Amino acid sequence: MKVLLSWLREFAPVSGDPSEIGEQLSGLGLAVEEISAIGGGLDGIVVARVLELRPHPDADRIQLVDVDAGDGEVLQICCGAFNMSAGDLVPLATLGTTMPDGMEIARRKMRGQWSNGMLCSPEEIGLGEGQDGILLLGSELEVGAPLVEALELQPDILYDLEVNPNRPDAMSVAGVARDLAARQGVPFVLPDPRPAEVGESAGGRLTVEVLDPVLCGRFVARVLDQITIGPSPNWLVNRLTALGMRPINNVVDVSNYVMLELGQPSHTYDLDAVVGSKLRVRRAVDDETIETLDGVDRTLGSTDGVIADGDNQAIGIAGIMGGASTEVSESTTSVALEMAWWDPQSISTSSRRLGLRSEASARFERGADPEVADLAMRRFAELLVGAGATLAPGVVDVRGSVPNRLPVRVRTARVNDLLGTALSRDEMAALLGPIGFISEPAGGDHSSADLDVVVPSFRPDSAAEIDVVEEVARMHGYGHISRTVPSSTITGSLTSYQKDRRLVRDTMVGHGLDEVMPVPFLAPGDLERAGLPADGITVANPLVAEESVMRASLRPGILKTLAYNASHRLKGLGVFEIGHVYRWPSTEQPLPDEREHLAVGLGGRDATGAVAVWSALADALDCRGYDLVADFPAGLHPSRTARLEVDGVAVGYVGEVDPGVLEAYGIGERVGWLEVNLQALLALPHGGRPYHQVSRYPSSDIDLAFEVDEGTPASAVRACLVAAAGGLLVDLSLFDVFRGAPVADGRRSLAFTLRFQAEDRTLTDSEVAEVRTACIAAVEGALPATLRG
Amino acid sequence: MTLDLDQHLIDATNAVAAVGDLDGLQRIEGELLGKSSVVNEARRSLGELEQEARKQAGRRLNEVRTELEKLLAERRVVLEAAERAAVLEAERLDLTEFDRGQRLGHRHVVTQTWERLEDIFVGMGFTVAEGPEIEDEWHNFGALNFPPDHPARDMYDTLYVDYGEPGSTLLRTHTSPVQIRVMESGEPPIYSIMPGRVFRSDTADATHMPVFHQIEGLVVDRRITFGDMAGTMDAFTKAYFGRDFASRLRPSYFPFTEPSAEFDILRDDGSWLELAGCGMVHPNVLEAGGLDPEIWSGFAFGFGLDRLALMRHGIDDLRELFRNDHRFLSQF
User: Fold this and answer.
1) Predicted ipTM?
2) What CATH number labels B109-329?
């Protein structure tokens, strides 16, 4: 919402310099996004007539424009806009002009052609934003006149405010003025225009029927005659333009002006075009159609409201946009003026469904003031009477149901408890009064500590005690509430999961791996390319296809990251990610199966590197009793991948990415791979190992080398040895793997060192020999393995 | 006793000094102290002397022997040191050959900010809670006091997923649903922060991403006030930035808090920086979380985590955080 300082001052004698007022507005919750001085600094800009347009011989994007700046001389201007024709009047910044943004206009060559000034867009001279092209001026202006005089521009201050959805009242100049006046402690007064009423009463010329009183809480209609469609006066055009609305004609402009000023949208019908002189408010029926003012044919549904005529034909979409059939035109002489109150929910639903937004719907869906129509009607008429129109007596006022607004009981103690203030009942009442919240002691009992507050009709957001608490805080000033720090009554900490996750991350970083953060969106096909099932949960309304699938695995993101870096000649990178993956649950449940995974991609390294990362991770977490079980999940290297099992629970895979997948992702190096369901892993027992005293007795080492079938994993031999060695085994390591003669083809030699130690004695040679024999027997008995001599 | 022991000592001193290695020293030691050494020969001939002369000569012999031992020991220390030095010199390495950039990995800059924030709030007595990124409509909107079709929902461009009934399941637009989950999971007092990943239907540009991170805070206890909220925001700012800032709260609107505020801090250039949104937890939200607003009150706050990361490092484009370029990641 934009407001002009001069306009605010029509309602309240606010004072202060522009930035001070800006701070006050922000402090009221009307955040000032921009303050600009307009209507000034335009010296040197004059009205000029376009004489001739010619292409620039050496440039496509600029043209040559000959203009007359009032002295009959032909001035050549280079101009980048193409929206004007010969004969148009345009603003010309003459040589020597300093533009509002500080730019100096000098005679200069553009691509070899002289430019003797600059034609101005509305934005360049502070007369509206976002409008392309040069400002086209009314043909009645005097060529050569200073623009400020020709347009009757006044220097003014424009505030661009961010209005929150709970403040529909501040979507009007008057509403902003009310807040500001309260802050400054100056009176706020609404105008009370009383335009003369002449002619035949509206009551006999127009009937209104509200068939859906929920949709339409109030429908007020009046009639204006002697309408002459024409341009609006300069001062009105200037204000509309400043607030970002394009002037159309006097009727439309007044409608917009009143909406901006008082917050009440209106609609005008060409009275003669309304069949049966009847306006019926009802819900649309499915597939009912209407051509709206913007010339678009729209298909309606039963959630939309319409205004229909005597033939029950829809001639407007309630609260959103009028229809083309009754549009006010050059031939219009009498208009029916509608000012209604529409159910916010209905307008919001309808506006979303139709994908149609208007200044009116923005106000109705936030909740307009159901009581301002009478004043707004008179203001509308007053403004149009100046253009020769007349206001017919009589008001057609049909009320539906507007939410019932009971006084709100506000407990003084409650307010102070929530705010940390020590306000008295009467201090609160005094804060609330100026913004229209009228209060009296609760139940009319002057000894009561509390208040009954009547919330004004223009504040539909305010309906409960807590809403009034906010108003008290706002008017008291947030800055005046003293700041305290609550003493937390609990001990701050991370959960054990969160601590473990940090440990996991530190372990990865300690391994030289960089943490990456790919977006969790995938493109269709990303999962399949990574060898994964194509059943990712899809986004219902993605902006782009590349972001239409939620990742079911971290693998595509890591592979894309490696591919991206490789394309920038950054190879051999080790990266990891900890993030959520989303999967279809195996049984029906309210939300998808979402869990946190760890994934590691080791560019340029093979499966052995990945196993090293896993063992470091297992060590860091003190995760015992795991096994690597050869497996061949799709997308990973079929002969170089193992399933990670911890206490018999599968928690992930370690190995290498399938070369076919790497090719599909455009990665030209091996990628060692580790993926772990972190939530599953960390839920399993780990850490917390009980203390064992270090034995004070000497230990004995033996080496055992077995010739083992290739199909038998080293871990199986290890498991046999552990089981057979019993409690005396304190360390076991695989120190050599050997293939080739004299070891038979298809077998290899695995050499282990075993260290034995007792806690309570020095082991004898015979004890060690006994365990050694048992170990050999166990391995040879259980596995296709033989001890090497 | 014709032997001139003084001369012998002088000769021995010269001989020991002339020895260049430990083997030579060993040899000389035999010559000076061995069976047929001068001192041992002299000792054997002591018996020929009178008692008094024998006593004197014996003492003198002991002195000489001690002197010789000292000479040898001192020379041994020198030679041993020289020998060790030679061995060590032979092992000389140019260490700069081996400084080849062995590196640790890097935590992502967002993670670093995330953990820094966690640490600050843990220090202030907060716990850390998390919730699902794919949320139901109730936790993301309904429980947070967003009526269906309410314009306040337009403040969020929501991405929905094809799961359950259409419109029932979405990518959470903020971390606020975790507030409800925390309230559902137990009785107050609650002093929690809720960092996490959130989603909006936004086209990526320098200041927008369809995915970004927020951190939410929730305090619910008896007699928590708006003033407590203001003080907490100040305390956090000081802890995070390491110094005091002038700050202001100005009225704002969030459906799930009332009164609501924006928390701004005053930058060195005199302009205000909008740092966080905050407010007193709306009674409807407490009720949705199963708490009686007449007993419990609280405040919530939330701010953009990525933006704090950008600010700290002077990064001017949000997209860099998610591009995963090694040249970017390895800077932090």
Assistant:
1) 0.86
2) 3.30.930.10
